[in-house]
Each structure stands twice: as C-alpha cells, then as structure tokens.
Amino acid sequence: MAEQTLTLKNLRIAARARQMARLRESLTVVFASKTAIVGLVMVLLWVLVAVFAPLVTKFGPLEQDYLMINQGPSGAHILGTDHMGRDVWSRIAFGARTILTLGPLSVMVAFVVGITLGLPSGYYGGWIDETVMRILDAIMAFPTILLYMIIISAVGASPFNVVVAIAIGGAPGIARLVRALAMDIRTREYVAAAKLRGDKDIQIMLREILPNCRGPLIVDFLLRIGYAAFYIGTLGFLGLGLPPPTPDWGGMVQEGHSRMFANVWPVLSATLSIVTLVIGLNLFADGLREETMRYQ
Amino acid sequence: MARYIVRRLMTMLLSMLLISIIVFAVVEIAPGNVARNILGAFATPEQERSMENQLGLDRPAITRYFSWLFGSDWQVSRLIGMPVREIVISQGTQQNYRQWWAVDEDGSLVQWDVVDGQLIKLVRQENGSTLPVPDEAGWKVDEEGRTYFWGLDNLNHAALWFQGEGGAEYTYGYSGWTQSTDSPVDYVPLSRGLLRGDAGISLRYKRPVSEVIGRKMFNSAVLAGLAFLVSIPTAIVLGVIAGLNEGKPIDRIISMGGLVTAASPDFATGIFLIIILGLWLKVLPGATVFLSDTAIFDDPRMLVMPVLTASLVEIGYVLRITRASVVEVMNSAYVRTAILKGLSHRKVVLSHVLRNAMMAPITVIMLHINWLIGGLVVVESVFGYPGMGNFILNAALYKDIYSIEAGAMVLIVLAVSTQLVADIIYSYLNPRIRYT
After folding, report:
1. What percentage of chain B carries pLDDT values higher than 90?
2. Could B286 and A134 be called an inter-chain contact, meaning their C-beta atoms sit closer than 8 Å?
3. Nearest residue to B162 (alpha-carbon basis) of B132, B143, B186, B180
4. Dihedral pair phi/psi, residue B179, rounded to 5°
5. B81 and B48, same structural domain?
6. pLDDT reported for residue A176
7. What is the ipTM for the molecules in this complex?
8. In terms of domains, do B151 and B297 share one?
9. What is the Cα–Cα distance from B169 to B54, expressed in whole angstroms?
10. A215-247 confidence digits (pLDDT tens)
11. What does the pLDDT read at residue B165?
12. Which of A246, A263, B115, B353 maximizes the CB count within 10 A of its CB?
C-alpha cells in the first residue's frame, strides 16, 4: 500500500518535472531569439501600461477641460490634449487596455470557432470536410478588411461586434491549419491505440489530436494577436471600431487625422502606439516561429 | 491542363455563388434598419414602412436575393401580364436616365397612374412626353372582391393599386417629404439584376450603382497600377541586395525596414507620410481634397502620397519574400557547385541565383491580391481618394446596401479571378501541382 502511494507520488513528481522541463524549453526558445526578446519587451511595456493605466496617468481618459484644448506637451499633459481637452497620454494608456483586451479575446473566439470546424473536418474527412472547406474557401475569398467592413456596417460598431467580426475573419485560416494538422496526426499510432481502446471520436479529437497540434497553434495564436491588433486599429480608423468616446487608438487617429494641422500630438501618439504594439507582436511571433523551426 | 482549368473554373463558380449568398445575407438580413439609417431618427414608423415598401425591402429575403442577382423584370412582366422594357433617355439635364416601361399590345410604351380613383394609362409619345388615356377596363377583381391593378409607375417600380383605397405614400426626395394619396400599396422595384450589369439604384447617389462604380474602379486601378509599378521593382531590388548580403549590416537595415513597413497598418504609414512630408518638410500638400471623381489627374502631386503609402506596405512584404528566397537559393547545392566551378560572383548571381529566386516573389505577389485590395481600401480612406475603397466605406457608413453589395462583389470577383489566373500560371510553371 505504502509502496503504491510512493509510486503515485513519484509519478506526480515526474509529471511536474516534465512540465517544468517543457516550460524551460519554451523559455529557452524565446530567449534564444533576439527578435523575440525585442518584440516581447515592446509588448510587455504596453501590457504594463494597460494594467497600471490608472496609476500612470493624472487624468481620466474621458475627462474634458474646455480651457485646455489642443495643447502641446507640457508638465501636466505629457503628450498634450486633444480637441476636447482630454489628456492624450491618458487616452493612450486606457486605449492600450482596449486593444490588449479585444485583440486576444477575438483571437480566442476565432480559435474556438476554427478548432470546432477544423478538427472534425480533418479527422473525419469525406463530405464533412468537403462542405466545411467550401464554405471556408468562400469566406477566405473576401479581402479581410472588406469582410469586416460589411459585417460591422450590418451589425453596428460595438466592442462585441468587433470581436465577432475579427473572429469570423480569422476562423477559416485557423480551421485550415487545424484540419491539416489533424489529417496528419490521425494516422499516428497513438490515435490507432486510442481507437482500439474504444475511445469515442470526440475524446480522440480533444485528448489525442488537439494537444498534439499545440506547437504550431501557439505560434499561430501569437501571430494572429498581431493581426487582430492591426485590424482593430484599422477598423477604428475607418470609423467602424469602438463608438466614441471609448479610448481607442484607431479612433484617436481618425479624430486627430482631420485636425493634425492644428495639433499633431493626438494623431502622432496614437499612430506610434499602434505601430509599436503591432510590430512588437509581430517580432515576438516571428522570432518564436523561426526559433521553433530551427529547434525542430 | 484543360481539365485542371475547367475543374478550377467550376469550383470558382461554386465559390462565387456561396460568396454572393454570404454578401447578401450579411448586408440585407442582418439587424439594422436601412430606412431608419437613411431617414434619420425623426422619421415616423409609417414613413419608414413606406420607404421599405418602395425599396421592396418588405419582400421575402429569397425573392430579394433572386431579384438582386437575376433581376426582377421577368417577375414583373408576369405580374402585370405584359413584357417590360428598359430604355435609356438622354434629354436636357437627364443624361443616361434609365426608365422602365411596359410594352402594350400595339407596341407602344406605357406606364400607369391613379388620379382621383381613376386609372390612367400614360402612353409614351415620340418626343418623350406622355399622353394620358383613361384605362378603366384595366381594373381586375381578386378573390376577395377587391378591385386591383398591377402596373408600372413612373419611378421604375411595378406597383399595385387598389381602387378606392389609395395608400398614403411618403416619398423622400431632394426637397424633403411629399405625401400623396391614391398611391400604390405594394411595390416591386425593377432591375436587370447584378448578373446582367444592373446593381440597383444607389440609395446615396440616387443613381444606378453600375454608373457610379465605373469611374471609381478606374481611379482605383490607376492607384493600384502606379503603386505596383513603384513597389515591385523596388522591393525586388532591395530584397536581392539584402539576400546577397545575408547577415551584413546592409541586410539588417533593409530587413528591419521591410519588417516595419510590412507590419505597420496601412493607415499608420499614410499618417506618418502626411506628418513628415506634408506637415514637417512641407514638400507635398498635406491635406488633399479630391473635389471630383476626375480630380486625380488635375494635380499629379496629389497622387504622390497615396501611391507612396500603398507602395511602402507592399514593398515590405515582397522584399521579405524575395530576401528569403534569395538566401535559400544562395545556400543551395547548385549555387555552391557554380561557385566551386570557378564562375565569377557576378555570373553566378545573374544566371543562377536570380532566375531561381524570382519564382517565389512572383507567385506570392499574385496570391497576395486580397491583401492588396484590403490595403487599397484603407489607403483610399486616409487620403479621401475617390476610388472603390472609399466608395464601399462610405456606402457602409451610410448603409447604402446596393452599393456595398455591388462594390463587394466587384472586388471579390477581381480577387478570385486573379487568384485563379495565378494558380493556372503556377501550375503551368510547376506541373507537379496539377495532379494533386
């Protein structure tokens, strides 16, 4: 009896050790790539700003001061104020919250949809695969921005709808990737073993196939957060993003764009913020992808 | 090869059918009241209903989908029991004005109106005027004993009148609301359908969409063409330089620049260019206003920044592909052989590396068309450029449904057919693809 508990305990320790090893492995991958580190630092800076937004700003993002409109940078307002006398830095900091919540959220929704469609499609093949792929092909034929434009114009601009639109736009690509991985993995021995064991299809898909897809999926996830940030900014700029007065970088560019000859600071800060975040995310994902490819 | 192309064409047709259903479904079935969006918040529900009725938006979605795609004239001629014909009038201020008429038994063109409960047939004369003829015999009686008449009105609808119960109609025109009685109670708007080149009447311009869209397509093609001419040679030259100098400082600089321009959202690139060139250096007009659809040719300086923005994004992308491809070829066995054989560096690069390394960027550029179109939409909206992108964006913001649908379909047909051509060229160059 005692011996048995001991083995169980050993097993648990071994499992923990394996997990630690895996974590160390992935950290090594990240730190092996200079590109990934640079990207990670850029992204983390924005994450810190977003998390501590109320602490690093002196004014609220919606606080208007009609005596202080279109000011340049000063001691009180480090990036000046916009046409409504709102503190630009505060809107940038709170805008980081918006984009850093909506971005990952929409990619997660896209992954849920994409995996739901791609996994059975790749596992079963046949007419399920054929039908799903035809529909996804049709969606993928849309230029992405066009798809977002017609969705948002139909359902209206709101955070929820932006997430839905970006999820719809991203899901087909994810489904394709998952399908390709599933088609490959379903021929492996451990899947055959699970089938012999009498596991149900859904168990095989979720316990055997999905966990073994995770490497490429994680890289894809990171890349897609970059795209999502890109598109959330673009939608905001086109006037199809979050309704004002929500602090939203794309929206700030849109508002400041027409007033840039009076005051360049709001539009310049918002544009720089989007660019640094998107490039940071891209560098991180790119570096990681290259490093994992080399690793394999 | 022929079989491959036919198979691809069939899949493309199937995709286009699905795409048309998606576009229609998203634009027209989704929540959001088209009439309210156009009439504003102060319109009464009656006015909204009247407008929906006149636009035919109260008809079932399936019927609307088929009228949108194939036209409603055949449907209407069954309703009124007469063939209908569309004629184009150019008279005075009305240029290329399209009108639908029913063709009477004696070949004359007719429309109808109801005045004071009397059904009047308007017979078109040679000079374009109409001759009113009372047509009391035209009324028909339905099962419930009501007297009704299906005919064409003078605003390109098929209309249903009931004798003695003229519906109250609200028309929103340039001069505001007009209310009329004795008016029809149901409408079917006439159109030839998208497949026959008629995308309906734009709710915003009050003109046929197909007429408005032509000029915009031309303008977009000019922008895209110029951007293409600027970006592709630049990108390939820079990519080759970077690839040949892999790891050296010049490669780092070019690669980094490529990454930054490729990853930056298009609008950010545009804004930076305006700030730097227009606001700080003042070498180009920072704010451009395109007053008319043809304004792009009045002052070529206005074109510089849109073209530059569209190019920069594309340069970054193509540059990275070219660089990767050159690096790969440089490390290949046959290039090593060529070098060991004693060929000069120049000769190796020109006759071995470049030819093989160009495959990847060329295919990628073609497969990249979707992205390019999306980029153009954004670039056009940064500069207010009068092209397709701006047209669709404004249509989306105004909820001009027929313009959104037509614009979307045009862009997608363009994207899908380019993709097809790219696939065919690629399979021609690389026969292995054909059989998989």
Report:
1. 2
2. no
3. B186
4. -115, 135
5. yes
6. 92
7. 0.83
8. no
9. 9
10. 888 888 988 998 899 999 999 999 888 887 888
11. 63
12. B353
Range of the domain at B120: 42-193
Residue of A nearest to B407 (CA): A146
- Predicted pLDDT of residue B436: 47
Q: Which residue, B158, B193, B228, sits at the end of a domain?
A: B193
Tokens encoding B371: 């992205």
Contacts of B27 in chain A (CB under 8 A): 150, 153-154
Q: How far apart are CA A194 and CA B397, in angstroms?
A: 53
- Specify the amino acid at residue B388: M
% residues pLDDT > 90 (chain A) = 25
Q: Which residues of chain B have pLDDT under 70?
A: 30-32, 91-95, 164-182, 286-296, 367, 430-436
Residue A91: C-alpha distances to residues A162, A250, B86, B272 (Å): 20, 11, 56, 20
Summarised one tens digit per residue, pLDDT across range B310-356 is 888 888 888 888 888 888 888 888 888 888 888 888 888 887 788 77
Q: Closest residue of B to A227, CA-based?
A: B263
For residues B285 and B214, give the distance between their C-alpha atoms in angstroms, rounded to a whole number: 28
B 29-48 residues with CB < 8 A to A:
30-32
- Give the burial class of B429: count Cβ atoms within 10 A of its Cβ; 0-12 exposed, 13-18 middle, 19 or more buried: exposed
CB contact under 8 A, A138 and B279: no
**What is the spatial order of strands in the sheet that B109-115 belongs to?**
B84-91, B94-103, B109-115, B118-124, B130-134
The per-residue pLDDT of chain A, averaged, comes to: 85
- The CATH number that applies at residue B383 is 1.10.3720.10
